[in-house]
Automatic annotation (TrEMBL):
The protein, known as: Uncharacterized protein
Top-level taxon of the source organism: Bacteria
Length: 84
């Protein structure tokens, strides 16, 4: 790829941009939910931390892969509740 960037770098940049876009779009409503907790404020530092930790937790997986994992875990929960 041009400019010395790897496909992984571009993919990480795109993910970072998507998370940032989410926070741009829904950050105010998230802040209102946090206001009920009493102290959290969506500062630039917290925003950067949310993006970094979300990317870390995703471990390079795309949204579709994460959805498959989520759905499998939800099935496990439902099956566990049914067996009680």
């Amino acid at each position: 790829m041009g400019g010395g960037r790897s496909a992984h770098d571009l993919s990480s940049r795109r993910r970072r941009e998507r998370i940032a876009s989410y926070l741009d779009h829904l950050g105010d409503s998230q802040q209102r939910r946090w206001d009920d907790l009493g102290t959290p404020t969506l500062t630039k530092a917290l925003r950067a931390k949310l993006i970094a930790e979300t990317l870390s937790d995703a471990d390079g997986k795309n949204v579709s892969q994460l959805a498959v994992e989520r759905d499998a875990k939800l099935v496990e929960v439902v099956e566990s509740l049914r067996s009680k």
